[in-house]
Amino acid sequence: MAANGLPGLSAPPLTRWERFRLIVKVVELRLRFIALMAVTGAVFAYWDTIWNHIDKWRRPAAETAAAEAGFEFYCPMHPSVVMAQPGLCPICGMPLSKRAQGEPEALPPGVAARVSLSPQRIAQAGVRTVPVAYAPLVEEVVTVGTVELDERLVRRIASRLPGLTRIESLRVNVTGQTIRAGEVLGTLYSASLYQAAQELRLAARAQAARPSTVSGSLARQLSGDNSALLQASIEKLRLWGLTQDQIDALARSEVADPRIPIVAPIDGVVIRKAVVEGQYVGEGDPLFEVADLGHLWIKGRIYEHQLSLVQVGQEVEATVTAYPGEVFRGTVALIDPVLDAATRTVGVRFDLDNPDLQLRPGMYATVRLQTPVARTPAYLAARRGPAADANPLALTPAAQRVCLVTNLQLGAMGDPVAMEIEGRRVWLCCAGCEDKLRADPALYLARLESAPRDQVLTIPESAVIDTGRRTLVYVEAEPGVFEARDVQLGPRSGDLYPVLDGLAVGERVAAAGAFLIDAETRLSAGGSAAYAEPAAGSLVHAH
């Protein structure tokens, strides 16, 4: 078939030179495409550099001269505002400060560094912020102790009769037997008791049959002598431990009884039986020990650093291996006044009710104490903010202490600025905070309110950067601008940290991506210095 579609015509064969030129043209077309793609990629990759050069070429001559002089003007409150000429900050109206180009930015106290991230960079890094909010955090102290008898509920029954007495009989003859108050445990035989009972009977009869035929002072004297003898007999028996009912029974009996019952003084359990039937015991010898197991002690020890978390009257929860899942509740009854120098621990006694007698003396128990962080001395001493006794409607700078917007100490940015809003007189660190306060007064005025009961400011664990020398949190000061803020935190509770100082309610901290922001700060020379010197700071721009 013809090369051009015409019959009878055929394309002449290509010469070697024509073939070579065709190959060169094909390669040239492909190289042009590759070069075009490379140039396009380079423009995208170095767009910031290219734009900076274009911006430099387009600057006015005065600005270029100022830049060549090596100085620039910046806003201390808004690091993104950098100008070549002196003037006022377009955001807050503060006079711009002068500095040498490349000089680290002088940051407010408590701010270690600032980093500015573009929206694309924030999205790529997955940076997520959360507000600083109140939560009911607690510190838990766990210790192990032993269940013991309540010493106040232990009674020792001893013989109070003079001389030797014999155990005539025992009704309670087994250790561990449960008894009731007033129950007869046994009987004692005593010759001294027999003699005292006879004296009582004779004195009682003499008093009842006092002479009626003799009148005058002699009759009264004889009656008084009989009464004194009767009272002395009664008092003797009472000192020997007899009850008034027993004494009355002896006085009414026809025959003196040398036996006296042994009566249980309290409800409880016999924890020790020291006698057997027929045994002779002397005055003061123990017969029984009875304990009320309805109320017990747990004695444990806590470490020295936990001492501030334990208070007398504090509620506790105890568990024992014998009853898994069951909780026994009690209170802290005593904290030893002396520290054990060898173990650096303090003894603590817990009181628990034991109505069902499930707990037994000698058991091991695990005791847990929970103290709200808001009540711990560390939190109360370090908490920063308006004074608790200050009038929230008319605060003074000394009473308010910190700026409601920036949470900086009043005076850190110059003389405090007073502002009236919603019937309150408040103080700000600078005039640039006024617009922010007017834009969202509820957010900032909430920082004047007292914290809810037993709640503290909290931040998530993922927001904390521990450098070893200081503890930092990245606070979103403005959209895309993060400040490395020095904070003071309490012990971690779960995945939250209590904030003792450095943050205010409503501020937003980087909870996800904080380590990326920290890495951007460390890449700069000034940012690295921020970790070595507490007073240093830097501004980093990342796109």
Structure description:
- With 543 residues, this protein is α+β, with helices and mostly antiparallel strands.
- The protein folds into 5 domains: 73-103, no CATH class; 124-137 and 455-542, conserved putative lor/sdh protein from methanococcus maripaludis s2 fold (Beta Barrel), CATH 2.40.420; 141-149 and 293-372, Elongation Factor Tu (Ef-tu), domain 3; 154-291, OB fold (Dihydrolipoamide Acetyltransferase, E2P), CATH 2.40.50; 389-448, no CATH class.
- The chain is 27% helix and 30% strand.
- The protein has a 6-stranded antiparallel barrel with strand order 7-16-19-18-17-20.
- Strand 27 and strand 28 (496-501) form a beta hairpin.
- The radius of gyration is 46 Å and the shape is elongated.
- The chain starts with 15 loop residues before the first helix and ends with a strand.
- 26% of the residues are buried.
Count of domains: 5
User: CATH homologous superfamily of the largest domain - what is it?
Assistant: RNA polymerase II/Efflux pump adaptor protein, barrel-sandwich hybrid domain
CATH architecture of the largest domain: Beta Barrel
- Uncertain runs: 1-6, 525-530, 532-543
Query: How can the largest sheet be summarized?
Result: 6 strands, antiparallel, barrel
What share of the residues lie within helices? 25-40%
Strand content: 25-35%
Instruction: Report the principal-axis shape.
Output: elongated
Question: CATH class of the largest domain, please?
Answer: Mainly Beta
Structural class determined from secondary elements = alpha+beta
User: N- to C-terminal separation?
Assistant: 63 Å
Average pLDDT, all residues: 80
Give the beta-strand count.
30
Which fold name corresponds to the CATH topology of the largest domain? OB fold (Dihydrolipoamide Acetyltransferase, E2P)
Strand order of the largest sheet: 7-16-19-18-17-20
